[in-house]
DNA sequence: ATTTAACCGAGACGGTACGTCCCGTCTTTAC
DNA sequence: GTAAAGACGGGACGTACCGTCTCGGTTAAAT
């Protein structure tokens, strides 16, 4: 039995307009700008409406994470090639903002709402995951794969997030090779 | 020729009281709590005085970096031992907040005042520096040392800052060994 | 087509509470006390709300002038009687503050916001106007009426505003008689 | 026995510089501008020094009243001529600021410091006084003289202070004639 | 020449009010 | 029931001035 009246939740276009603007704001001005007030002035959607549907910072970032998920590169089969491809993919993403900016924003958002920390953890884990998968496919044990992923990807994240340097692909590729050769002792 | 009048800058005790409380706040409640208002209510020093001497977030973080600098462990001579000691030191610091908390705070402060980014870069560079020095002493070339420092320390930073995990010392020590053996071709 | 949403402007009771208190403050403590801060502590209405609706001193005084206008006595027909009645009315008002206090306040408010000068001029002109009207009715020419009004009322204003003396009704009545007799040449 | 040491009170030039600037400020920007802070920025004399010698608004206005006293016109002997001359003198003064501005300022200063009210009263009384003297010399009784002074001078004050109009000399002269003829019935 | 008292400037400090901004909740109206 | 417009209280922000104070260095009289 259907309840009468208008279905709950934001109208589709309202949600689209607001979340698009939110992502835009997040990437250009950082997490601090992601307030109902700002969204109202930017989108014209009324402050009241924004509050109704996304009552907390968490709700926003959470919605955005769903809108802009991290899609891993698709494996071609050869672990070595896949690994190098994944490294390049991550470097590009960190440089071109979609991921780098989002990560920056997530880190900053935690300062405002601690609950976001969980989203940050998941987001970073998602970034590291492809490396682990590929290393497993290459014959590494689970802990070996985790270590390898950390060794390859972490420096890239540190450079992009903490040092504001371009990620050093060369080093990452060398590390990858080193790890792969360590796996096939023959 | 001396100018007349009272010497400029905060009286010694004022500076001490405020900066001590600031560090305390930073480590216990995070960077978001480090506001003039909070410092006033916590220390009793008047809001006006706080603004007078530390008008910007940058001024604060900068003063704190000077108050609580990162002191590297003192090298004992044997590169291998030194490297492992330095790893343990960093892990301890990241766990016990003095460094981990401060780093968190620096990252958050950048969201408010971009000028802090420069302090963050320097702070992180200071964290990585000891590793580079030791690796150079162990016979690595300059780029090799930089790479090695990144490979060893970055995962620790990522775990502490982005994943909220305890740093995985084991992996760090293994990486260190791997790198050291790579250096001595014998 | 009507716009949706709540009608603009302060809710009726808010306006009433604030303006009542404002008038009260004005008359008891003088114009210097008429600040948003004072009104907040006195009425309990939040400082923000006060600023929202009366952003400037001018807005306040202006609203008060509308709330407490100067109502002339109603003419009974006989110019001589009317004139003397009007004199007594003005003297009473100057003594009992409603007008005297308000005038004081207007003068003081000009020091803060020059735009109030216009309100002051109008207010004083409104005070002098009844005298002119009555003198015209008694047969005076327009300039004669203006002069007469000035001669009769000005000393009262000076005494109340500048000398802090009770207005000297006797002199005012004598001046009035003198002027009236000057008008009837017989 | 004289005490040794430097004599108390401000050095002559300090007092001169500050009071000159104070008068200037008072006339150009009104009483609200007459603060230690402003005087410091204008004269370069340190805030501390200003506070030392003129601790209250009252002290300032009081010092200024002594610096710029109201000097009555000198009587020539003939009451009629003297009276008209005095009227012109007052009108000129009200127009040319020295007196008009000062009076404005005095009125405003009362709002800040009620003690100034006494100075205002005296100042206004000093303005009215010449008229009374001359009328007495013309044969008026004391109350008659007071009334006459009020009738002649008050409208001028009201016009200058409350209506921002140029004082109407014509009316004042006519009033004077009227009063003088009333005195010599013969 | 030395006292000695006061001047003077620079600035710290606590306090209060200012005017602004954003937050989060609520109420009123229109669709 | 959604949406818009806006009132409202609350809190922090950063600024400005106030009045008091402490600290140095200077100056002018009286001894």
Automatic annotation (TrEMBL), chains A, B, C, D:
UniProt DNA-binding residue ranges: 35-54
Ranges where the HTH tetR-type domain occurs: 12-72
Pfam families referenced in this protein's UniProt entry, alphabetically: TetR_N
The protein, known as: HTH tetR-type domain-containing protein
InterPro entries: Homeodomain-like_sf, HTH_TetR, Tet_transcr_reg_TetR-rel_C_sf
Phylogenetic placement of the source organism: Bacteria, Bacillati, Actinomycetota, Actinomycetes, Streptosporangiales
Naturally occurring in which organism (per UniProt): Actinocorallia longicatena
Keywords for the protein's UniProt record, in alphabetical order: DNA-binding
């Amino acid at each position: 039995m259907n309840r009468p009246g208008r279905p709950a939740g934001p109208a589709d276009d309202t949600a689209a307009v607001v979340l698009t603007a939110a992502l835009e704001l997040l990437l250009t001005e950082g997490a601090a700008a992601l307030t109902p007030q700002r969204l109202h002035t930017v989108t014209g959607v009324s402050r009241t409406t924004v509050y109704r549907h996304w009552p907390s910072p968490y709700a926003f970032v959470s919605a955005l994470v769903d809108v802009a998920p991290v899609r891993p590169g698709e494996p071609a089969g050869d672990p070595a090639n896949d690994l190098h491809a994944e490294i390049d993919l991550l470097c590009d993403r960190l440089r071109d903002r979609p991921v780098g900016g989002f990560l920056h924003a997530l880190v900053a958002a935690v300062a405002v709402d601690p609950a976001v920390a969980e989203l940050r953890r998941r987001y970073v884990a998602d970034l590291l995951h492809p490396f682990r998968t590929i290393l497993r496919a290459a014959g590494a044990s689970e802990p070996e794969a985790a270590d390898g992923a950390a060794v390859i990807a972490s420096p890239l994240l540190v450079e992009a997030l903490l040092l504001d340097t371009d990620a050093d692909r060369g080093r990452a590729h060398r590390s990858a090779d080193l790890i792969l050769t360590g796996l096939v002792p023959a």
